[in-house]
């Protein structure tokens, strides 16, 4: 597919529900080029020279924030980080006023993480810089969904027709929602399993999505398994009993991994609770691409910056 068919220039990256298969394909193809830059001794190109990017994070993050920051810097942009605990936000400044302040400084893009669903969409309505959603509550995490697709394609050579098992707390997972939108658009078959209290009801009505009561049934003959993080705050809410019980019934261990295809690829968005949702043997085993996901995240975020700020052209 030629890159001339579609452009993302000026597009807000709010969720993969807003992306077509062609737009996703453009990001994945561009990320391949960006990964080559990461492997160089000198990781610097002038693609975004003169552009300015602000990361605005209302929730803690290591991987995502650092990944976006490095992506911008590798492309030659000026990147400034704002975190809630070290800004006027602690003085009671509203989200709208914070956004207006950043806009007034003339930035080109705002990468935003917020605990409220819809916060990124709200930002896109009130200010003019391109908004890239780095996670809004349990709603969406589009760049994570894209880097998962990129990682899978790097290993499998294609996406269409692959069977993916997503295990765990789908109900509260913005990663799972983005994955499901992206994977379905790219022709993948999605199988979901986890505690009934942590599975959204609407999923069983969606075509190409199969919900299982037992994780063994979801894993059987899978090409890819994505394990979601146990969110310990859910345990306090009584949505599952104990971490030990969770590991026994829903954890991915070597025994369960053997039910999938021999070359199954194991993913996890991180941070991992090893020994709970995933055993250390699986997390660091031959089938795992969990560390590779981190590197691929930088490449995919470089691709997003390049496409939304320049349309893919060298400026």
Topology:
Elements lengths: L20 H18 L13 E6 L5 H12 L3 E6 L11 H10 L4 E6 L4 H8 L3 E7 L5 H15 L6 E5 L6 H12 L3 E5 L15 E4 L2 H5 L4 E4 L4 H5 L6 H8 L3 H4 L7 E3 L12 H4 L6 H21 L5
Parallel strand pairs: 1-2, 1-3, 3-4, 5-6, 5-8, 6-7, 8-9
Notable features of this structure?
single chain; 315 residues; alpha/beta; Rossmann fold; 2 domains; four-stranded parallel β-sheet; 9 strands; 39% helix
Model description:
The chain has 2 domains: 155 residues, Aspartate/ornithine carbamoyltransferase (Rossmann fold), CATH 3.40.50; 149 residues, Aspartate/ornithine carbamoyltransferase (Rossmann fold, 3-Layer(aba) Sandwich), CATH 3.40.50.1370. The mean pLDDT is 92. It has a 5-stranded parallel beta sheet. A 4-stranded parallel beta sheet has the order 2-1-3-4, with helices on both faces. It is of the alpha/beta class. It is built from 12 helices and 9 strands.
Number of domains: 2
> What is the count of DSSP helices, taking H or I runs of 4+ residues?
12
Q: Look at the structure and give the CATH class of the largest domain.
A: Alpha Beta
How many angstroms does the end-to-end distance come to? 23 Å
CATH architecture of the largest domain: 3-Layer(aba) Sandwich
Overall, the morphology is: globular
Q: What can be said about the biggest beta sheet? A: 5 strands, parallel
Helix content estimate: 25-40%
Q: What is the CATH topology of the largest domain?
A: Rossmann fold
Radius of gyration of CA atoms, rounded to a whole number: 19 Å
Task: Kindly name the structural category.
Answer: alpha/beta
Task: Supply the CATH superfamily name of the largest domain.
Answer: Aspartate/ornithine carbamoyltransferase
Low-confidence segments: none
Give the mean pLDDT.
92
Q: Helix and strand string, N-terminal first?
A: HEHEHEHEHEHEEHEHHHEHH
Beta-strand percent range: 5-15%
Number of separate strands? 9
Strand order of the largest sheet: 7-6-5-8-9
Oligomer: single chain
